[in-house]
Amino acid sequence: MMEKIQSLGLRILPLTKEVLTKSTELLSKYSKLNIFDSIHLAHAILEGERILSTDHVFDEIKEVVKVDPLD
Questions:
Q1: Which of 34, 54, 40 is nearest to 10 (CA)?
Q2: Domain range for 53
């Protein structure tokens, strides 16, 4: 499994205090986020990356660019 993830150029990022702090901020700012989305989003923001998702909840988030793989 890890080989497949690495072959796609993906990284598994650690759940740090910084990520949890950002996630908590996002949860309080955007009521439609759940904890899993907020952690995913916190990582994207802190890493300066876009977020790959079909979930429309990310359309309202100004801090990140959402890429819909179905578009």
A1: 40
A2: 2-67
Report helix, strand or coil for 1: coil
Per residue in 10-57, pLDDT (tens digit) is: 778 999 999 999 999 999 999 999 999 999 999 999 999 999 899 999
Residue 15, number of CB atoms within 10 A of its CB: 11
One-character DSSP codes across the chain? -HHHHHHTT--PPP--HHHHHHHHHHHHH-TT--HHHHHHHHHHHHHT--EE---GGGGG-TTS-EE-TT-
The total number of structural domains in the chain stands at 1
Q: What is the pTM of this model?
A: 0.83
Of the CA atoms within 13 Å of residue 49, those in its CB half-sphere come to 13
